[in-house]
Amino acid sequence: MDTQKLARDVKFLKTYALGATLLPVVALLCAFGKPDKPVRFGEINVERINLVERDGTVKMVLSNKERFPQGVTIDGQHIDYARTNPGMLFYNEKGEECGGLIFGGKKDKDGKVSAGSQLSLDRFGQDQVIALKYQQQGSGYEAGLTFNDAPEESMAVTNAKYKNASREVQKQAYREGKYGLLPRMFVGTTAGRSSAMIMSDQRGETRLMLVANTDQSLLDFKDSQGRTRLSIGVDKNNQPVLRFLDEQGQEVKPAPAVK
Hints:
Layout: H1 3-32, E1 48-52, E2 58-63, E3 72-74, E4 77-79, E5 87-91, E6 97-107, E7 113-122, E8 128-137, E9 140-149, H2 155-162, H3 167-175, E10 182-189, E11 195-200, E12 206-212, E13 217-222, E14 228-234, E15 240-245, E16 251-252
Antiparallel strand pairs: 1-2, 2-5, 3-4, 5-6, 6-7, 7-8, 8-9, 9-10, 10-11, 11-12, 12-13, 13-14, 14-15, 15-16
């Protein structure tokens, strides 16, 4: 046998095998190497997708729960907390989180449901000021739209000021709107299956509550301490209701009109 011919054949086969291996890889890399050229996929399986600008700034993250970002970074300071659900996060031009969508649901060994989902929008540098939420524990659930007030200062600043402060200092800062979220309005359904609208003042105190169910439709006006002082509605017997209440919740006659 001609050894030189055999050597040439072996060399040819090696070259052919290498080319057959590299050609699909090169073609795939070329496809991804042209960012302006659309690439179409019928179906992909992926654990996380980062949507970025040309300069690499992250604008959106879509992730499973294992790869979901933990905590939040504001003004270069990372505030760590656990996140245990899959979902989507939105980012502003500064590269900081400005909203997101999370979801999940499961049953325990006894068949009890624990589920929920939430779409939220954050104030710049702060936490969520709008949230569309569904939450269920067992057979009862609530769903609705919530509006919150967030502090003027960024979350990084308020966290540095109050995270390690005493409980009393934190509560005072909360009442003044300087730490945490103050609820301002809720519209939705309650765990008791009532329709409800709840409105609060700048300190987070409930001032107005509207509830409707099969037993009643009732509108309560509350004072600055959160105590109901006036109720207007229709009871379960379809009778109109008008009640004036004192500070202790006892019904009183209306004060005479001032002339």
